[in-house]
Amino acid sequence: MAIMMPASDTAVLARRSEIVAALRAIVPGEGVIDSPAEMRVYESDGLTAYRQPPMVVVLPDTTEQVSLVLKYCAAEGIKVVPRGSGTSLSGGALPLEDGVLLGLGKFKRIREIDFDNRVVVTEPGVTNLAISQAVAHAGFYYAPDPSSQIACSIGGNVAENSGGVHCLKYGMTTNNVLGCEIVLMSGEILRIGGKGCENAGYDLMGVITGSEGLLGVITEITVRILQKPETARALMVGFAEVEAAGECVARIIGAGIIPGGMEMMDKPAIHAAEAFVHAGYPLDVEALLIIELDGPGVEVDELITRVEAIAQACGSTTCQISTSEAERNLFWAGRKAAFPAVGRISPDYLCMDGTIPRGALPKALARIRELSEKYQLGVANVFHAGDGNLHPLILYDANKPGEIERAEAFGADILRACVEFGGVLTGEHGVGIEKRDLMPEMFSEVDLNQQQRLKCAFDAQGLLNPGKVFPTLHRCAELGRMHVHAGKLAFPDIPRF
Amino acid sequence: MDTLKVRDAKDVEEVVRAAIANEQPLEIIGHGSKRSIGHAMATNAVLDVSALNAVTSYEPNELIITVEAGAPLADVMSLIDSKNQQFAFEPMHTAPLLGTPALGTIGGMIAAGLAGPRRIRAGGARDHLLGAHAVSGFGDSFKTGGKVVKNVTGYDLCKLLAGSWGTLSVMTEVTLKVMPKPEAERTLLLRGLDDAAANKAMTAALGSPFDVSGAAHLPKSAFRPKMEGLGAIASQGEALTVLRLEGITASAAHRAASLRELLAPFGTAVVVEDDASAALWAAIRDVLPFAAGGALGAWPVWRIVCPPAAGGTLGQQLARETGGDVLYDWGGGLIWAALPPNADAHAAAVRRRADAVGGHAMLVRASEDIRRSVEVFHPQPAGVAALGERVRASFDPKTILNRGRLTRGAAAA
């Protein structure tokens, strides 16, 4: 493993059977799992290159149990890793050898559907898609739609601030969540926000969202739901040059059009997807854009015409426009299956997740091509082009010595390039362990210290999901120390009025 | 009182460091347009960031703008307007309500986080702040977020800075999302509904697929024979329920017709277009009926946020109980209440009713006297308040920045 996790606490490991018994007293029956065979399913998440069985798995089914487990662990100095469905692509739910894995899978109930206030109050173990399904009969849906929406839990979505194809127009998780019940590491249960548009006080919901399980354990969530657009149609546009496709994306946005989704695939991704799902993708193009317009029919028709004209002006070589739901779904089928499709052409792949300014797309693609040569590894590119979010899939074979290391180094160079081009390390998958050691590429020590101080406000002992997000863990006492800058006892030479 | 007019982020760092060394709290101001919101601050030094007013970069095709925190809001808005773009969250101009000169900076707008009618569809300042450079109460310059629309790298400290009223850090530069201006807007007007019926009409509209971007209700008011700022639209003195549709022209017109049909049980809606519609929504955004220069200018004003469907009942009961006047935005989820002056601005009634529905209330306009005896910001449950205080201290352990602004009596601490 290239990434080091915090050293195991041997004193805690030595007390394992006592800890298991204490957890059983809180969560009776099958809610505590300690046999190595049964714990294996929890040893990794969607970042399968990293595996570590936990010390013990606990699956509470009430908020009170979560609270008691955390209170016990806090008192005993035991680390805790929260987990939803385990679909994280950044290793956010990777267990620790000396840690309790706290699974929220039993929190499966939707607690309230409130159409008048356009919210759903749900437990965190409910899947993203199940929320949309529960309100579909009234024409509503929950907008953020990560590709893993069949499996991923809404609690995990909040922890990771998940995005998806439609977040260009409808926002990420953070823009669609109104409140939560959260249990702090101390065991304290708090309610943040509610059914109103805004919280009172500091926007704690805003900072809990995307905190990757380091600030607290969420036991209830209030999400906003929207009415489904009247209709949606998609264009599938091919280009002989990647640059032309990038230009087309910029011009669509520049024309004031915000599509429901705007995705790009490069040639290797197109070929892999087409071989897998036979969506009718053109195989002789270098880049394919799938652009979806949604809204009333009259609006969609008009925007389709405008987008088609822009695409032609940018030199598109093929353009198909969906005329039925079946056809629209077919356009998407290839894109949505891009990851498994790439899985068919390569034994293993690493999925990267940097974001760049849209205008830097051609530059970024050129760099990825160079790096592919340098590392002698193939790459297939799929992008959320509308918001500059890149998903290069680096192809490798874990059974070949040295390939995983090369693939990781390749990935790290791509992310460094994203930062160099004015972008960021992760657009929607989270830092987790995967990008943890790259954080200094984007943030200074001062920046990271300020983030860690916030962590201290929630979890002063640093017991919740340690080893994720931050490359170096500092003690809260050390972070809180005020460095008084000597010799500055008067206000400096600043104009006074 | 010392006013320190800083020239750059380095100056801000030095001033805050000196303030820490001297244990001298600082009041942070841009144009000072919202100084009357919150409690009196325990400080005799002002850090003025209004000279940090440059536009660092504006890239219309990337839908982002990066500006220094002291840049005048009006200038930045006209700059993005020149590229047919806007801040989709419709930041409120507080000058008419507070009776201050028409000023204000980007930093102040974000620190206050007061979003306008489109909040229901596009979110608030917190949803559009993509990145920031700021100086914490440790005297350190830090950055958070980035300059791209999609980013989950590290904690999203931008969310905390928006709406923090200058108590966490001194923002020096911010990156905001901008969005294309809609080609057209249409507003449906329904007349004569009481608050409960209006709340139902707005709920029906917001639960429709017609993508409503504004839903407000102005009840018939004894204090408002002519609603300030609303011109001829309000001349009949009747209650007015308004619903906005925006987008490309064909779409806005189509949805206006569909919504009109959907709302037929509530009455026959009149459609107002483009400029007239824009003027109406600007008046609602800036709460012109309660303007400092108007008939209710001397009354304290509350801003109550609640679950939208609970708004009609809450507002109606509050108006009856206090003899005050209310108006509704966000489909009922935001209530502006101007209440007859008394010793505590009716705080007990307002907070009891807000608490009962899971809402919260902020006293936006009140005399200094009243603010000495009433909490301006809604008191939180003990656990959440304690967490909020730990979060504040994680940015500013010595309480150097805007000490006492958020909590009554804290200034003495």
Helix content of chain B: 25-40%
Strand count of chain B: 18
Instruction: Please state the CA-atom Rg of chain B, rounded to the nearest Å.
Output: 21 Å
- Spatial strand arrangement across the major sheet of chain B: 4-5-9-7-8
The dominant shape of chain A is: globular
Beta-strand fraction estimate of chain A? 15-25%
Mean pLDDT of chain A: 94
Our count of helices of chain A gives 18
Oligomer: heterodimer
Contiguous runs where pLDDT drops below 50 for at least 5 residues of chain A: none
Total count of helical runs of at least 4 residues of chain B: 14
Q: Averaging pLDDT over every residue of chain B, what do you get?
A: 94
CA-based shape of chain B: globular
Model regions low in confidence, pLDDT < 50 over at least 5 residues of chain B? none
For the largest sheet of chain A, list the strands in their spatial order. 15-12-14-13-17-18-16
Largest sheet of chain A: 7 strands, antiparallel
Overall SS class of chain B? alpha+beta
